[in-house]
User: Fold these one by one.
Assistant:
Number 1:
Amino acid sequence: MTSHAFIVTPEHVRIRLEPAGLGSRFLAVVTDFVILVAVGTLLSLVFTTLLPRSVAGLLSVTSMAMLGWGYHVYFEIRHAGRTPGKRMAGLRVVDGRGLPLQPAQSFVRNVARVLDFLPFGYGVGAIASLVDDHHRRLGDVAAGTLVVKERPATLALPRLPRSPRWNSLATPRTRKLLERRLGLEDRELLLELVLRAEQLDAASRFDVMEEAGRIFRERLEIEDEALSGESLLRDLCALTHGSDEREG
């Protein structure tokens, strides 16, 4: 039976996440490892061909160390929590509260990867994942993150609250960034926040909308400061869920 993690934010927004199992995480790890070895081998051949053996050896070791860490951080930050291996396995890393992954969290979880790898082959990480209810390795626990399964898009969506104004975010640039930088979990989070906004008291509603709006504003490089957090989330939700009518 598939387990789910129900996250309740401080503002009492309940979000369902489905933690990834060990099998799919292993597939992602193996895929990323093969890619890293291939890139590292190519670099080593280049160094060996162009440089003295001693220098080439030092650069090869250094480049592999940098690749092993930087590869994961780069893809997690720039590709909505998904390395190529995670994308192939249908997984992504998210904040433990259901919000998008932050750069500092990616940095922490990947620094801790050294501990998870001990004594070899992610032995400690595998044990930690078996013990933890949400299959988190030590890096996830330290960073407050989860590796979750991508869920298929919802076939039938409830009618969204409509904004009485023209959607200023309905531009080719924003649509392109939405496609590239927001995964299914981000889109579901937008929908969840918009649909549950009216269930929150005024103070909590303002706080959660502004915080979530700030995150999505930075992720999508939106410079329209006139939009409140809630207006921004509603406009993005309209774009991601096919309800972007422009009303005068």
Number 2:
Amino acid sequence: MFGRAGLVLGAGTMEALSRTRIAMFGLGGVGGWCAESLVRTGVRRLTLVDPDLVCASNINRQLMATSATVGRSKAEALAERLREINPDFEPDVHLLFYDASTAGEFDFSGYDYVIDAIDSLDSKVLLIRNALSSPGTTLFSSMGAALRSDPFQVRRDEFRKVAGDGLARALRRRFRESGGIPERRFTCVWSPERRAVAAPPADGEAKNVKGSIVHTTAVFGFALASLVVEDVERKTQDGCDIVSRMVT
């Protein structure tokens, strides 16, 4: 099933990926694609956290959103799809909103990686702080993917180096208001693209809703998955190098 990935990454990395534990927060236009990319690359242990139901407006960009899944839980619909890809996939589904009342349900010391793909500012601040407080856990975070249409501008940087992103700017402000920007560094996926709103919201749409398009949001998700795979590969190779020196 994962032979083609193994030809790129090697047997050691594939074995490590199958044992890697990842918590995925937010399963929208970014998180769903990230989750599928990880599972198609051999990850079996993935915690899926999202309280929302699929709605028709999700269909343009969210992986699990189809005409058949409207009204279903996003997390459960995604878990079902991922089990169809790999019957050995072991999802841990949480239908909840991450905030101060639910944060205690997650012990981040039990995860190798936490992926932040949520856009609620208060929840994002709390998640980042809590994940970074676990020394053995690596956090990767998505900045704003809405109002971007050029996938060739998507990039990665340490959070302090992200410039021109409204979500990152709001995060910095909220961090400063609540104790300061975290000292521990973390990597973000983001885009400097600035695109004007093309049309006002349609009747019935909230005025604060921002447009988004799948070929960009998916690239954000794939980039987050790539950061995990790259890091697992690096750690595996470092371990092999140590063993090799010891044998020599």
Number 3:
Amino acid sequence: MKPKTLKEGGRNWGEVQLAGPTSFSTIVLKRGVTEIDHLWSWFDLIGNKAHYDLRMRGEIKVMSNQDPQQTVLHYRLKNVLPIKFKGPDLSSTASQVAVEELHLAHEGLTLERPGGQSNAS
């Protein structure tokens, strides 16, 4: 959120700080390459098949290290749009795992904590 300043006459000790518009940064998802191509299919549908208005809802779940079945944090995204897809570097001499990357723009983020508490933005 970028603050906006307002100068008032007679207020010589500083400006009034108002809340400005909220902006959301791009979310970047990275994963090792698998046979599942849902993310690529979505990006391809938006970019190459001209369904520019197709927005989706999204969820990001952060799982516990001790218990992989337990969700520690749960984020919900609204009006998600894939804006960049980066495939793995295809080098025969590389010893790294092939990683693909998807950049997502969105219009809202909600954090749900375990026990049903919700912090919307």
